[in-house]
Input
Amino acid sequence: MMIVSSLDELRSARLLLDGTVGLVPTMGYLHEGHLSLIRRAKAECKSVVVSIFVNPTQFGPNEDLAKYPRDLERDLKLIEPLGVDLVWNPTAEVMYPNGYQTWVEVEALTKGLEGAMRPSHFRGVTTVVAKLFNAVQPHKAYFGQKDAQQAAVIRRMTQDLNFPLEVVVCPIVREADGLAMSSRNKYLEGDDRKAALVLFQALSAAKEAYETGERDAETLRRKMKEVIAAEPRAQMQYVSCADYDSLEELETVTGKTLFSMAVLIGKTRLIDNFVLG
Ligand code: PAF
Output
């Protein structure tokens, strides 16, 4: 497994990879969700590149950039047995050298949901992902459905900017009790860990109602809100029942629908979603 950090090293290492190249972009502190993306890439591509970069431009001024968990040694130990060919671990100076001033922005899709709560977040995500695509030149790139809006925004950007690659969105990986895997789960201690199940429970309540025929989106949103309100440690940020592609809030559920939410459990902000229909 080659491990590089500068752009020159990355480009030389990339030239040594043949066949279909799959890229798995990550911010490190890997968990089973990331490993499932790497396994899928490995199953579908001859060569697999994993990038590990905690991207400062996708964190807001009051977000946890300095606190974001980092452990490269641990990440490399997890990646090695999966047969990854190349790990790119650039510094912030490599990605954003002095004088940097170029941004990639997807418009309407980034206005609601996470974008409404975290105004500059997606500009940072699309900029860094475009830079990763340009540098690595993968044939396929793998993202998790857990960040549903991110996946939709990256699909749009890839299409709009004519990147010649396929965006593959992989299912959410959950703990045995339903909690969606996330690097942030490490902050959940004691009663907060149990309270965090409220996201899965609220989504399950909406799913049950949907499966028994409920199609009124406001009723489905209300069902999710009621479950969250019943958990004293949870503070709802948003609950959404939106069209899967446009992410516009629905009145009536007809086609493929994204049920999603962001909830604070103590100080830890969690997101989760189900896709139905
Ligand atoms: O999902 C993530 O970990 C990040 O947003 C990504 C796609 C690696 C960009 O920094």
